[in-house]
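The passage that follows is intended for readers who have already worked through the single-chain material. We present the inputs for a multi-component assembly, then the predicted structure in tokenized form, and finally a short commentary. You are encouraged to pause after the input and sketch how you expect the pieces to fit together before reading on.
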Amino acid sequence: MSLDDDARVVEIRSRLGRAITRICPAWLNDYREDILQAAMVRLLSVGQPERIAALPSSYLWKVAYSAMIDEIRRLRRVRATSLDLELNDPPTNDPGADPERVQAGQRLGEGIRGCLATLAEARRQAVTLHLVGHSGPEISRLLRWDLKRVENALYRGLADLRACLTSKGLAP
Amino acid sequence: MSDDLERLRDAFLSLADRSRSSESCPPAEMVWDGATGRLTARRTRRLVDHLATCPACAEAWRLAREAAEGTEQQPDARPRGSWAGWLGGAVAVAAAAVVLVVVAPVARDWWRTRSAADVYRGDTSEIKALTAEQPPLRREHAVLRWTSPGDGARYVVRISMADLTPLTTAGDLRVSEYIIPASSLANVPSGSTIFWQVDATLRDGRTVTSPTFLARIE
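Having made your guess, compare it with the prediction:
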């Protein structure tokens, strides 16, 4: 590798590091270095640093994201199979959260998942996307539906979801 | 956003902490493409149906959405083909996809020969490189050194090229350093980057795996 390539590798690593810092949840902080290394391995396998440096920035973010998700999946597999109690503790955004409240939230989550399965297809899809954070216009763009159809599916789908949850004694 | 909707969202995504991905889960790259509007409507709908049943992937989707928002990356306006077809449009990206699909799993296997259950990686900082990336290592005396995670540890060191071609693996080392045989570096071009990683087995049977470190060859 030439000196130019060395400089490019340093720059790529720096850009990846910034991307990972921005997208990593706090509970993954201890694993950032692993994620960075995994992302570097993927990127450097693409070809010479000059070629990597020419890839669009969005691709770099996608690699950073993919390495992070793979690490999350790996950690959850380890936790599920490990006898180590520390690893069995689920990560939480709020370590001081009331355990009863956490459990109630998880019961509600299970209820939502069960109820989603009973919704009509279009309503289920619109509501699912809404639950992961998308607005009506975003859902319209993702599913290629006109906004009116999305709003209708959302309105009816959320009403169905609430009715289902209420019937299970899980009114939000 | 109403408190009611916020509670529903929190509850729906709270299951991710205790869920595991399965064989049916889409690759992370596909979740990214879905959340950033790069899949066909049909594939997106199929993926969304999966999210409705899989809290881990729902969380992954949310993270992709937030990350893409952070990069100010908007779904592009180009005509949508299939996922593979879209990738096929750009040679560089297609090559990268091949790497992700074909090379990455091989690489992972190579770097992680132990099963996940056997490997404790809760604190990978237990092993730190004492050999820096710079200055370059002399090929006739390329010494890798690292911190010991505990007395009596035994080590396995794996060394590869940056393209993941294995160079050598040394096992049952009792000291926290290793001199790469010159013969292993014979075909390594001058100025190349190599990767190295250490597995340490401690006296209590725990295995600690280091991050992957980089070094240069003179």
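Commentary: The radius of gyration of chain B is 22 Å. Residues 159 and 196 of chain B are 4 Å apart (CA to CA). How closely did your sketch match?
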